[in-house]
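Weekly sync, protein design subgroup
Attendees: M.S., D.O., the rotation student, P.L. (late)

Item 1: inverse folding check
M.S. brought a backbone from last month's batch and wanted to see whether the design step gives back something sensible before we order anything. D.O. pointed out we never logged the input encoding, so this time it goes straight into the notes. Structure tokens as presented (481 positions):
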């Protein structure tokens, strides 16, 4: 350097000399001296080579802020090429400088959007950037932005152009699908339900992509992703104690409509698909759809169809039917027709079991009787009477205490009390039916001996009174004649 002239013609030669000295001191880990020499080189010749070496110095000094700023400075160099940006991104990755690597790869993506030609495929840059972001547990929002951006580019370019051809394209498609799915699972566990819903929605989109020689996407994973996305939307609503707007409700219903379309399109394979999805997830689909339909006017018939589909599916779980039935029986968005259907289906399933759970059976019978009373009034409706008779038939032959005693007492007392109104209005036959039902049930219940004696005494007295009134009426008739 001592023998290089200081004239204008020698500026390039002197700049090259400073850059060589910078490299030498970098190799010796004398970073401050290296920075001094590259600053001198940049004053003489502000080229991309000088800017890149300065970037390397900042990386070695672990000054991520300065290195990130230097990446932007590189972009403004007149002789800039994307090769230097790719090199900077890989250098930062090798040095484990995640913020710098992420910034570098993000700038590279901007060049793809601008139509610049870059030797590395765009899908690889997206994948690398997502992998880098995944190393930071607090970068879920940033990951979501990149995944959304990748999906938008795929839609813009087409799956073949974005992912690639053949087996390579399928592997890339599967990687993005699984990555979005895993991010959804992770954020769901962390109760970040808003992010979770978006990740699962994007997973469904990637799983539905068709690559070479495929006729359809992964329908099972599409269904699972959509169901979990809507479940997360509802979970987020409850977690944040807010209410979904009507537009959000309709968007969620549209996602579930895709699930329903897939299920109904697999003619003859419906139960196989449901079994593959999993009965728990299929219940989640049914429950979410039922909940969302209840928020819109005129959707009662759709709710009923949902529960019929759930009840008729192979391997339907009585616990699921019970939960739907209880939810439908109460609350501001109740649907008594759905509740009756679900509870009756649950009751049938429980009674068909080798060892029925009579506590749950009793709960269902009580709820069905209450529903019948609400819908039809406290009258001798045949359907309500049939429920009491069904309860009586269930108790016949059971061991003492096998049917919950308190529930059996409730059945007996409510059946007996239902005779009160018919007695007052003179509907004698109706009153007799209810009193007889109450008495028969009381005879099945241990501990109701006193009640049973009083009932029998009242029935006998009531019969004598009715017979006496009948005799008086007949006598009056004879006198008149």
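Designed sequence read out in the meeting:
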């Amino acid at each position: 350097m001592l023998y290089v002239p200081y004239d204008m013609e020698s500026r390039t030669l002197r700049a090259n000399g400073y850059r060589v000295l910078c490299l030498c001191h970098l190799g010796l880990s004398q970073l401050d001296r290296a920075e001094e020499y590259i600053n001198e080189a940049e004053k003489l010749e502000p080229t991309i080579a000088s800017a890149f070496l300065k970037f390397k110095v900042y990386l070695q000094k672990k000054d991520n802020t300065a290195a990130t700023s230097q990446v932007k400075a590189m972009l403004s160099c007149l002789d800039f090429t994307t090769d230097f940006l790719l090199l900077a991104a890989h250098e930062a990755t090798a040095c484990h400088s995640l913020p710098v690597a992420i910034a570098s790869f993000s700038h590279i993506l901007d060049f793809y959007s601008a139509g610049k030609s870059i030797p590395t495929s765009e899908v690889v840059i997206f994948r690398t950037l997502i992998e880098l972001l995944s190393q930071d547990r607090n970068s879920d929002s940033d990951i979501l932005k990149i995944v959304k951006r990748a999906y938008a580019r795929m839609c813009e370019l087409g799956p073949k152009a974005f992912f690639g051809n053949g087996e390579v394209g399928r592997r890339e498609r599967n990687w993005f699908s699984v990555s979005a799915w895993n991010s959804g699972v992770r954020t769901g566990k962390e109760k970040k339900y808003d992010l979770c819903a978006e990740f699962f929605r994007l997973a469904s989109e990637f799983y539905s992509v068709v690559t070479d020689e495929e006729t359809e996407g992964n329908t099972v994973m599409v269904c699972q992703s959509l169901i979990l996305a809507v479940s997360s939307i509802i979970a987020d609503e409850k977690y944040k104690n807010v209410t979904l707007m009507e537009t959000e409700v309709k968007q969620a219903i549209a996602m579930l409509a895709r699930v329903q379309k897939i299920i109904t399109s697999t003619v003859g394979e419906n139960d196989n698909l449901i079994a593959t999805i999993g009965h728990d997830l299929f219940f989640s689909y049914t429950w979410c759809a039922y909940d969302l339909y209840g928020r819109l006017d005129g959707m009662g018939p759709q709710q009923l169809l949902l529960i019929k589909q759930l009840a008729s599916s192979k391997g339907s779980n009585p616990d699921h039917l019970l939960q739907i039935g209880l939810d439908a029986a109460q609350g501001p968005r109740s649907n008594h027709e759905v509740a009756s259907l679900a509870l009756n289906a649950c009751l049938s399933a429980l009674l068909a079991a080798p060892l029925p759970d009579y506590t749950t059976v009793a709960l269902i019978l009580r709820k069905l009787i209450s529903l019948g009373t609400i819908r039809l009034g406290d009258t001798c409706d045949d359907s309500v009477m049939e429920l009491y008779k069904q309860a009586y038939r269930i108790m016949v032959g059971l061991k003492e205490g096998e049917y919950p005693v308190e529930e059996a007492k409730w059945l007996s007392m409510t059946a007996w009390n239902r005779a009160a109104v018919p007695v007052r209005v003179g509907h004698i036959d109706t009153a007799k039916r209810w009193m007889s039902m109450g008495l028969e049930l009381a005879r099945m219940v241990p501990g109701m001996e006193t009640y049973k004696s009083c009932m029998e005494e009242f029935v006998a007295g009531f019969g004598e009174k009715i017979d006496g009134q009948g005799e008086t009426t007949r006598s009056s008739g004879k006198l008149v004649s």
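Discussion: The first helix runs from residue 11 to 27. Residues 470-481 have pLDDT under 50 and may be disordered.
Action: P.L. to compare against the previous round before Friday.
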